[in-house]
Structures are given as structure tokens and as C-alpha cells.
What does this fold into?
Amino acid sequence: MALLINEIQDLKAVLTFFFPGDGPAIQSNTPNEETLELTEKFLFEVNKCSNSIQTLIDYLGAGRLNMGGLRQRALKAIADATRRREKRLDVVLSCANVGRAYYRRPIMDSFTI
Amino acid sequence: MTWALAALMLLTATPSWAQERKYPSDALCKKELLCRRCDGPSCMKVATPAPWPEVRLQESTVPFNIGSTFRVRFPKDPSEVVLVNGPGDATVRYGAQRWISVQLLSAASAGLPQREGEHSSKSGELSYSDVPRILHMNTAEDAEPKNMNDRRIWRSALTSKNGLLANSTELIAAEKGPLTVYLSNGGVANTSASAWVVHRNLKDYVLLVQAKGFSFDDFRQVVGSIDALRE
It folds into this structure.
């Protein structure tokens, strides 16, 4: 199912947080279902470091990080946390460094230009 | 005078949070029981030492300098060369589903301790350039370093190992002059291979090369073409 406009905005917010150097490309192109799927896999990888994503989701009261379930509640919650520059995201960002390096290009490559 | 000196030291000292911020904190590790754990079969994979990858067809390649440190030769006739943040961050495309990318990654952007320059952290021995070695040569059974800064670097590499190397059946480590490369086939998210290149005199930077739609043999040749531009 195609992404809704608010889901696209939320996904852009999450990706801009993790890949700030790609901000202009993220804002000027359109993420799609493949982008969402890769972002989900990426967040699963990041979560292996200290359960950092699930800890954040728990704190935000947004349920569980389930494969295929990101768009239900967690995506909006994480996006809102990045917009608020939530302090807890610092740990997430540090944890993510190797995963960020691996997933960055495939995620950016999935955008619809 | 003493007061002025103390004030100056306070103003110029690195803020304590910059060096002491826990990543992830030991308390959090204990609570979550996950920091040290690389869980899964790929945690035990280690790279096999091998000769530097052989380069063939060098005449039909395009040289590409990455800063003042690395030079790589790409296969000829790319359809597009995309520079994102300068030459250390580029994708060379050969059609829609076939590309090679290079990313010069830094300790600063990774949020890990730096060993060079004004933000250098004196505590600990490991540097960001050790991340590829830890990822490819160490396993979950190896003892963690005792120093906190070293553990941050160690954990950043090992906690993701199972997922990032899950599709890799060939892991190779090779050296040429000041360069060491760690190559693996079968990357994440439909990438076909990846290589981390480390320069022995560059502590805070590593080069990550990834490919999509390239055979491992073709990718090895691209990686084999990488030269150091300085000692």
C-alpha cells in the first residue's frame, strides 16, 4: 500500500535525523514502500545496540517495534521525537553508527526521484 | 592570577559531558543485557587473510581521488556520478540497479571518540579505524576492552555484526602498504558486497565501499584498485 502523505513526512523526519548530510536529497525526493521497509530493517539493526529503539518507543508509549508494523504507530512517534529533538535520541544515534554506514546508501537509493 | 588561570582552564577545557557521555552506559547495558551480546551465527564469522585483490583490465577504468588519501578506479562508462557531500561521499551508477558507492566515514560523525585533532580523547587505545577490524576479526567470545572509550568503539562494531554480515559467505582481509581492506560479499538491503579500507596513519577515518548489482569478483577488482595517496 502506497505511503500516505503524513507517513512520507514522518519517514523524511526520521531519515533526516539519522542521515543529516542527506537532508536536501531527503526533502526533495519521495520515500516509498521500499524506503519504509529498509528503514524498518535499519531500525531493527540499531535496536540490537542496547535495545535503544524499543526503549525509545516504550518511552513514547508507541507499542512494539515489529517488522511490518513501523507505520502503525512507531513511525509517527519516532518522527515526533526527532522533531522535538528528544534527548534520548542521542544514545540511539551513537549506537547506530555502523548500521547507519551500511544502510545509508541503499535507503537513499530507494527514494523515488 | 590563580583565579584567572582557573577560569581560563574552565573556559578552554573540553566539557566533561563530551568525554564522559556513556555510550551506551554500563547501567543501561546491565539493564538491557544487550550491549555485549552479538547474538547469532554471524557473530562468529572472521575474515580470512588473503593477498591484496588482483586488478585486471586496469586500462578501462576511471581514476577517482577521495580526498588526499585514497584513489580508486571505477569501471568505465558509468551512467552517472553523484557526489553527495564531496568526493568522499559518492555513488557511481551503471544503470538503475547497479552502482558502487564510497563513503569516507569519520569518528566525529559516528559519535565515537576521536584520536586526532583538537577534540582528541586521550583515554583509551582503540580508534575509529579499529571498527572494521573488530567487525571482521573479533567475535562475541572475545573479551571487551576495559577502557570505556575503547568499549564504545568495540560495541559499536560488534553489536551489529550478526545482522550486517548475515548474508556474507566470503570474508577476506588483505594488506597493501599502509592500507588494510576487509571485504565481504552479500551485504544488507540488496547490496552485493562491501569493503572497509583503513589507512594505518589515519585514526579517525575509514572508507566504506559498497556495491549493488556487481559480482564479488568484479567488486574485488574495484577494491583491489584502491591505492594510498600518502604514507
The interface with chain B takes residues 21-22, 25, 38, 41-42, 44-45, 48-52, 55, 90-91, 93-95, 97-107, 109 of chain A (CB under 8 Å). The mean pLDDT of chain A is 86. Helices of chain A lie at 5-18, 23-28, 33-47, 52-60, 70-83, 89-95, 97-109. Residues 44 and 65 of chain A are 8 Å apart (CA to CA).
